[in-house]
Predict the 3D structure of the following.
Amino acid sequence: MHWRTRLVQPQTLARGGFASLAVPTHRGSTVLFERQADVADDWRHRDKGYTYGLYGTPTALELGARVGQLEGALHTFVVPGGQAAIALVYLALCGAGSHALVPHSAYGPNKEMAAGMLKRLGIEVEAYDPLIGAGIAALIRPNTALVWTESPGSVTMEVQDVPAICEAAHARGVPVALDNTYAAGVLFDAFAHGVDISIQALTKYVGGHSDLLLGSVSVRDAAYKDRVGDTFKQLGLAVSPDDCSLALRGLQTLGLRLERLEASALEIARWLAGQPGIATVLHPALPSCPGHETWKRDFSGSASVFSVLFDDRHSARQIEAFVDALRLFKIGMSWGGVTSLALVYPALERPGRDYAGRLVRLNVGLEECADLKADLAQALTAMEQAR
Ligand SMILES: Cc1ncc(COP(=O)(O)O)c(C=O)c1O
């Protein structure tokens, strides 16, 4: 055959049987079929075999299976990011005329999607007090299609009574979804506490090194698997096998990282609680955090993010000066990696609570605690001196 043909259709020379500990990175869009009669276009790769790279190569399926096994899920879909996971749940469960409930403390872009795209599609999303517990029953309407939970909440860290919310929602036939990113799918057992769909931004703890973007949607029963799966296919939420390979590596050290991050974040949080100028430390493992008792009851540990509220003697300018003065804590949004981060949240919509630009969220990384405390101490001094 001509060399041009051989370039495209070579004889494979490499030997098979490479038994390695690493999961191979399978790249591929087109899937080959033996016979025309075998051709199919089906996202059920795990059950029926591969049909198209869009629905996941073996690398993405391996990641989904491992995340699913940790969470005790029937099935886990791997999607391009945490926000894609949130969108997938909304679009799978809600349609024009649906009503959905989301806590005030939910991740900002979740609420942004509710106010933007979902509103345009005729889906009404109502925000509720994250500490409402069984009181959610009063907000459920005949057209309520979904209750979101996120525990602890983004930035303000309220720990929700997820079992009470699930019980009330299920009594009215309404499914409950949880953004379980904080717990990395392991510090809170979503399905044992009644949740129907658990999502994670794998970008955070599973990736663990701030170098990939991925999300997961885990379902616990067959009805949700099909609804989510069909929507997943129609949206074309393909993921990169290279990112999945990094996430699979991240999973191997997740246990160690979480243990160390928990210890360091707690040490820093307790230390900050004793510093002058700080009104409250919002860390789920401290009694000062709303929902702390629920955290004690339902969680097996705490993670690396928490927030500090400065007392009202400080101006917004001084809080900014604090963050700007930090050297080891970098200014950045996406938490859960090895590097410590800080960020001021000037505009937070939390009815009944006024944080007025005095709230700073910290992500504690794997640096030595003594160095992190020294960094915070010099920034606290710089804040007091700033006007
Ligand atoms: C609680 C939570 N959920 C979801 C997301 C979205 O994840 P991603 O950045 O992978 O889209 C984030 C990201 O910050 C988050 O903090």
Summary: The radius of gyration is 23 Å.
